[in-house]
Automatic annotation (TrEMBL):
Name assigned to this protein: KAT8 regulatory NSL complex subunit 2
Region (Disordered): 39-59, 136-162, 231-253
Biased composition annotated in UniProt, kind: Acidic residues: 237-247
Cellular component GO terms held in the UniProt record: mitochondrion; NSL complex; nucleus
Stated role: Non-catalytic component of the NSL histone acetyltransferase complex, a multiprotein complex that mediates histone H4 acetylation at 'Lys-5'- and 'Lys-8' (H4K5ac and H4K8ac) at transcription start sites and promotes transcription initiation. Required for NSL complex stability and for transcription of intraciliary transport genes in both ciliated and non-ciliated cells by regulating histone H4 acetylation at 'Lys-5'- and 'Lys-12' (H4K5ac and H4K12ac). This is necessary for cilium assembly in ciliated cells and for organization of the microtubule cytoskeleton in non-ciliated cells.
UniProt-annotated location(s): Mitochondrion; Nucleus
The organism of origin for this protein: Diaphorina citri (Asian citrus psyllid)
Taxonomic lineage from the root: Eukaryota, Metazoa, Ecdysozoa, Arthropoda, Hexapoda
Keyword list, A-Z: Chromatin regulator, Isopeptide bond, Mitochondrion, Nucleus, Phosphoprotein, Ubl conjugation
Chief site of localization: mitochondrion
Amino acid sequence: LYCSIHSQKKTSLEEMKKYRQLKALIAYGRKHRLDTILAKREHEKRTASTSKTPNKGKTYKCHHQEDGVRCFSTCVPLTKFCIRHILRDKRQVLFRACGAPFNNTTCNNPVLVTVQDEHCVFHSTFQSVLEREKQQAAEEAMKQETPEVKSAEMDEGKSEEVDIMNEESEVKKEENIDEVKKEGIHLDEVKEENVKDKKEVKEEVEVKDERVLNENETRIDKVEEEALKEGKVEKETVEEEIVEETVEGPISL
């Protein structure tokens, strides 16, 4: 089946506007009235100057026939078919079918293989009628929904949100309890470490006190011994002096 833009129905004003724009773009590069005559004369002059025998501009018509009616469009160069029926040529490699869905079939408009567009001009630049009908039907179905169904859906959504919030709050509570337990265990460990530190400090202080007491006792003993020694020496010196005085007294007499 052949799909043409001109044969398709235009159901809205936007489609008519886009169709007119497309026709204007197609006719933009064509020459009209006096310009066509001048262009033809220039072409004849060029062909006459380049070749001895002027080119008569012979064109070949398309070989495609449908129901006994032949297509009279000009052929693509070096082929036997026009641009519409070029896909009938099984040897050609430059064109492929559009393939866009259209009226339970696929569009067979030829598209160049080298072009990046996947579809033909109509299906790549303008939205198809089927897609618009589907969108309109979906919008009408959405509008025709009863408010009861919407309220039920809203209630279901709210109940689901409440359940999710409750689950999240329970999970947070459990996490907080676990954190408190961990913090309590950590505090107990800190208290035990503080008690151990206090005990160690006390033991160190007691050891230091004992050392100081022992040192003081040893110092006191040394001082007493030295004092006793000095006292003995003084007694001996006094006795010697008394003896000397007693000895010297009668001698002097």
